[in-house]
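Quick one - inputs below.
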Amino acid sequence: MSTATTRTDTPLAGGDLGAALLAAFEGPHHERRAAGRAVFPSDDMLRDPALDLDQARAWTLDRLHALVAAGIGQAIVGVEQATADTQIQSLIDFETVAYGDLSVAIKSGVQHGLYGGAIAGLGTPEHHQRYLADALSLRTLGCFAMTERGHGSDVASLETTISYDPDAGEFVVHSPHRSSTKTYIGSAAAHGRMATVFGQLVVDGVERGVHCILVPLRDADGNPLPGVSIGDNGHKGGLLGVDNGTIAFDHVRVPRAMLLDRFGSVDEQGRYISSIENPNRRFFTMLGALVRGRICIGGGAAIAARRALSIATRYAERRTQFRHAHSDEESPLLDYLAHQRKLLPAIARAYALGFAQNDLIDAYGTVSSDSNHDPRAQRALETLAAGLKVMNTDFANSAIQTCREACGGAGYMSENQLTQLRADTDVFATFEGDNTVLLQLVAKGVLTDYRDVWGGLGRLGLVQASARMVGSAVIERTGAGLLAERLASTARRRGDSAAFYDRGWHAWMFEERERHSIDSLARRMRSADSNSFDQVNAMQDHVLFVARAHMERVMLDSFIAGIENCPEGAARQTLEELCTLFALTSLESDAGWFLAHNRMSDTRAKALRRQINQLCGDLRPRATALVEGFGIPAEWLGSAMLDG
Amino acid sequence: MSTATTRTDTPLAGGDLGAALLAAFEGPHHERRAAGRAVFPSDDMLRDPALDLDQARAWTLDRLHALVAAGIGQAIVGVEQATADTQIQSLIDFETVAYGDLSVAIKSGVQHGLYGGAIAGLGTPEHHQRYLADALSLRTLGCFAMTERGHGSDVASLETTISYDPDAGEFVVHSPHRSSTKTYIGSAAAHGRMATVFGQLVVDGVERGVHCILVPLRDADGNPLPGVSIGDNGHKGGLLGVDNGTIAFDHVRVPRAMLLDRFGSVDEQGRYISSIENPNRRFFTMLGALVRGRICIGGGAAIAARRALSIATRYAERRTQFRHAHSDEESPLLDYLAHQRKLLPAIARAYALGFAQNDLIDAYGTVSSDSNHDPRAQRALETLAAGLKVMNTDFANSAIQTCREACGGAGYMSENQLTQLRADTDVFATFEGDNTVLLQLVAKGVLTDYRDVWGGLGRLGLVQASARMVGSAVIERTGAGLLAERLASTARRRGDSAAFYDRGWHAWMFEERERHSIDSLARRMRSADSNSFDQVNAMQDHVLFVARAHMERVMLDSFIAGIENCPEGAARQTLEELCTLFALTSLESDAGWFLAHNRMSDTRAKALRRQINQLCGDLRPRATALVEGFGIPAEWLGSAMLDG
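Output:
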């Protein structure tokens, strides 16, 4: 019988390499993130899973106060005060919060990002002055009341009405049907005092489309105000600390000044005024002002995935199982190829996503603080935000699950944190935009430069109409993508003889997958009847493939640029290997496509698996350093199985 | 604005077709399953997710009593009384229980299947007479104490000792190290009075390998007995109604008669006696006697997946979202291709798994009641049980997750049941055998006919040694596979020109994937050094591929045989389409392999996607009938969003 199965003498320290990886990985936002970690209140940062709903909600609210006391979440400002600095800080704040319990993160996101963000993004300077400070300080706890029972993804079809009563100079907020009830609204069930409510604005009998208005929900004692009916969504699959609830309005009257009317207002004479003529463009401009939420959710999911990968990797270094042939020594789990293949490609992908998120954060800082509103840059930002939200949240769910299983029975114990992470991030795939719907927006963004054609065609028609505009796929690259583009064209000239680790070959292949799938989709769309549901519907899987191919290419571009910014040395060399592992894993998962489209030879496709195995083996001794590069202090992981 | 978004007039009834599908799907076990449903106590069958740990455990125990009152779980008998009938009934009982809360199912599995099953499988007629009735009636609540902190998958390395003291005529059960503590043991934390404890038998200073002994844990008042230390695993990622705990023994004395000594005993003179000379063969014979647990877990996971697919499909029929172009009508989610691709291939795979499980159940009935113990049939049974446990549990986890996401925010609300199903089945992937480890056992089973070479080589070495025995891959088929074999050889003679729906082509391709991967693995193994960890480890992903390729082929074989047993008519036609959808989806997921190995042309590979889309569209109008074929009464789904 062998005895010890938990190594205590394993060299867990990546040390210098981990620190260098972290600096490179966090890139332009490294100092800001480090500052966030320095002030993050890390005592009692993980929720006791045994708390019941009421206890969990109370604990979460307490933690939210602790965050505010630490100054986290205070960077939400109106557009008139926005600088790249404030805008980026608001994103980093959410990442910082995601080091702790994710109910707290989401509660903070609802309060600061969504409730505060709606005031900041859709309101005027008067609204900012009047409501923002109370939102940020938690003097007014707020809700973001968009989703209804009947419509979630299809925001344009919301049923709540916001009707102007010119005699009283007030708006009447009303839920006409059962399906109009707001639902899944964070902070509604217990704590919310005020809500930013989305509904159809009706002025003088004319529907003006979806607008947002502030509506008080509860009095100072917490009782619902007249006309406001509040329900409790009760127990959920996760995020038990967030008090999600339902809200229905029965002709609730609100002063005219509470309409968040940056993009569309009603004057004292009861006339509707908007600087944006086209109702569809107005709608999408308003939604666009809320893009921060998606960026935060993607960023938060990324942190959750890194926490899980940090836990599972550190455990796989310690936990041994099965004796060697003819030896009494047991191997750490991470010595097994099957285990390496579970964790190391996931780590590589986490790096890819992180570099892409850095670029998205930069883009948000620039675009959202630019007073010369550039619609093209805004569109590109929204596409990237939607796409990275999908890639990050899908990845988090699958990677955390992989980590859970990689830790066996221990992984299932709540004290080891993996199941909570999994349960909490689950919903990230469908809130702030359902991932399947968002991928269709990404494809639309890829297919067109013309937002203006985006009207009246419904979800599928709009993609098709966009495709008519383009002759053939143009893969546009800015900053981060320029180096990848250069590498790809060199490789293309050289042909299929490149080495597996040749970055140009990767960039070329990723580009081919994107370009060819766009071209063929655009061709199909041009010959289809956009009024035929069946014909448009038949392309939906192709649309999703295009979106994913695009995002993979964007991630590789960012990874390549990120490496370029890393000084020569061990960290850079490690990043090169991680990038190759990411690229080869992506190519392997679509090997069928590359072969069927003659982009890869049989020999090369067959060798992919061997190359990936080799890379896993090469990186394995540095595994601890790789997760140190994620920047999550080991003592914050809170996983009992890593103690002692 | 559109109004209603939930159709109440949708024709949800599949009616006759659903009933015919169910009869075919449940096949030889249809009547027995229907009888189980008829007696299943369906009142209060789903746990209130808001119950705290203590409440959940008490509720679960109550439900267990209700099951016993209904006669469910009573079919566990010693080998001397076993008939195909008793053995099959014990499996169907677990499936029936899985219609309700899965904590109850697992608690029942621990009590009847594991605790009772260890007594039945490892004990003698005296043990059966003395302990089995109390186990089945719940007079003695029991634990199955195998896993330790230090060793889970590697059962042979358990550290607990069972040492014979000849002077006292007693065994001394002891946990020598912290890593020897039993952990994750169901019913240990609160309810268990007795345990079947696995440990190293030591007789007269000689280690005799892992054996199992009955050890009393608590007195009549529920207090731990002297020398027994019990801990609580506390909150888990799911299965909150199961009181998992830890058990450590400090020189606990147990009478000699409590050793479950069917395969190895100690006589009054203190001599060790076993009918099985080879210690490795003895070890695996004992584990083999416990194969029922794996079959049950696979079957339970299958039921959970069907429950989720039933919920998500019925919701996708009702829930509408997004208006058509130039129309005010909204489409049900299931009209969208992307949604069809989420649910319909999963439904097809659930059918494939169900047919394979039917064959596994038959094999268990035959083998486990056969008094002329046939080691070859036993080995085949164990391989199939391990493989289907993996395929069923992996599928359940991914399918339930897909269903959760397909229901959007509603899917995340506990009242709709999907998140509980997901949380509860999560651990199915790693208990009763870690899926990655089990796949390696499957590959070993596929590679060899000689259990006897299975000694002393460790997990990887044994696979290699086995491979040396075979010259080239022989895919052996019995009952269910004969028809598939005939179809495949006809198709092989005809070549690549077969239609996409040609069953022979599917069978041929599945066979090619399996045969070629076995051949190449065996070749690699013959040239590797079995003492080199690195060389053997480098093949681990290949080993996993072989196991999966084998299981896919087995599932197709069973599906084909299942269709053959279905009378001509609409149900059979529907099963043909489902089988094609299953086959094409499996081929698509390995398209890279088929192309790189020249088993499929580019044109054919590219057309796969279109064929799958077409099949989804064809099956879509019958979606409700397809899930009716799963046999779960709609009123048992307990999903609030399906009401009204």
